[in-house]
Amino acid sequence: MNTTINSLNWRYAAKRMNGQKVPAGKLDNILESIRLTATSNGLQPFTVLVIEDKEIREKLFKSAVKQPQVVEGSHLLVFAAWKNITAEQIDTYFDMVYEERGMEKGALDQYANFLKDHFAKQTEVEIFNWASKQAYIALGTALVAAAEEKVDSTPMEGFNAAEVDQILGLAEKGLGASSLLALGFRDGSADHMVNAKKVRRSKDKLFVKI
Asked: Quick check: keyword Translocase in the entry (predicted)?
């Protein structure tokens, strides 16, 4: 069986973690997968806070409806979506494109100006919702990467976003928390889901071939 499929069969949303620290190499690979993930227009309109500090995670614990993985895990990733896409941010992205691909500066001005015009017409809510979708792509990539590293992960939507934003000072940075991801190692003695069979719709129910 494909190793990725094996890893996805192994993973589940761990409900309890044992406090063991994720080795730096494994964490780096998970973070690199986030950096390399696909995003619309390549803009990567989010910031990922990598929180190891136990005191900060304890502050977030109540805001995350007391999900124990927040404090029992090794790290908590906070996917914070941008609330605005500025012309300067777009220029910064295209400058990277020109440098990395050896292109003449300004070669993609038509494309860049289209994006500037598009986002200038969007509200903060519209931009945040779009950016959150991009962050979710990164979240999915991180789940797969963690599974391949045999690191347990628990994605979370159940949290008070306003409180998380306040604790981490996100609003003043033009960011808003869209999802959380706890990383660590499962506590088999405390997690009632550790041996639960994975339940998914069958291929013939999920996929429609046309």
From this structure: no
163: exposed, middle or buried (C-beta count within 10 Å: 0-12, 13-18, 19+)?
middle
Please give the Cα distance from 38 to 207 (Å, whole number). 23
> Cβ distance 14 to 150 under 8 Å?
no
Whose tokens are 């979708």? That residue is 133
- Residues 107 and 97 sit within 8 Å (Cβ to Cβ): no
Q: What is the DSSP letter of 192?
A: T
Q: Which of 99, 60, 98, 94 is nearest to 76 (CA)?
A: 60
Task: Encode 42-99 in three state secondary structure.
Answer: HCCCEEEEEECCHHHHHHHHHHCCCCCHHHHCCEEEEEEEECCCCHHHHHHHHHHHHH
pLDDT in tens, 63-77: 999 999 999 999 999
CA–CA separation, 9 vs 4, rounded Å?
Answer: 9
Burial 112-138 (b: 16+ CB within 10 A, else e): beebbeebeeeeeeebbebbbebbbbb
- What are the tens digits of pLDDT across the range 85-100? 999 999 999 999 999 9
